[in-house]
Amino acid sequence: MAKYAMVLNYKNCINCKACEVACKEENGILLGASSHRIWVGVNEVAGEFPLLSIASSAFYPSQCQQCGNAPCQQVCPTKATYYDKNGIVQVDESKCILCSYCMIACPYDARYVDDRTMTVDKCNFCGDTRLLRGLKTTACQATCPTKVRTFGDMDDPTSEISEILRTKEYFTLKTSLGTEPKLFYLK
């Protein structure tokens, strides 16, 4: 059994939106849809012209954090949100009753209502598409021109993600909540 995770070298992000487009294409989401599985946020500029400042990185890619202790999974009354055999948080559309408990419980605002299926959805590391087809990477990683994302099996000591996590400094978001996110941001 694998333990999939993703590392984001977010400082390389140029906000080209290739990851968002690839994700939408992979999952049959309309290109114009405002809610979807992954997104690139933009840090605001502070100050007044000509004395402007911006955070160390203007853009920050984000998505479901694939928590090892997922609040969304814990509150789901129908068990529509569950962990698959690879430890990936998935959604069973046939069990989702659109109660939105998972949306409220998610501290990362990573859940949304899919207008096509009228269920709550989120990123699942392409676990129901690319991984099932035997591919070893997500659509967003495969298309990123600046190599922001690295996806892989943390339990494989020879994997690229394991090497990065061994040799680079990183952080996770909202660590104090105890959600054990499997999305790591390089410092």
Quick structural gist:
With 187 residues, the protein is α+β, with helices and mostly antiparallel strands. It contains 5 helices and 12 strands.
Write up this protein.
- The structure is a single chain.
- The chain is α+β, with helices and mostly antiparallel strands and 187 residues long.
- It has one domain (4-186): Alpha-Beta Plaits, CATH 3.30.70.20.
- The chain is built from five helices and twelve strands.
- The chain has helices spanning 18-27, 71-75, 101-105, 139-143, 160-167, and strands spanning 4-8, 38-42, 46-48, 51-53, 59-63, 81-83, 89-91, 112-114, 119-121, 149-153, 170-171, 183-186.
- The strands form five sheets. A four-stranded mixed sheet has the order 10-1-12-11, covered by helices on one side.
- The radius of gyration is 17 Å and the shape is globular.
- 32% of the residues are buried.
- The mean pLDDT is 89.
The portion of residues forming beta strands comes to 15-25%
**Given the structure, what is the number of helices?**
5
What is the CATH topology? Alpha-Beta Plaits
- Shape estimate: globular
Largest beta-sheet details: 4 strands, mixed
Return the CATH class.
Alpha Beta
Structural class: alpha+beta
* Unreliable spans: none
Looking at the overall shape, the CATH architecture is 2-Layer Sandwich
Rg over C-alpha atoms, rounded to the nearest angstrom: 17 Å
The helix/strand series, from N terminus to C terminus, equals EHEEEEHEEHEEHEHEE
Report the count of strand segments. Answer: 12
Strand order of the largest sheet: 10-1-12-11
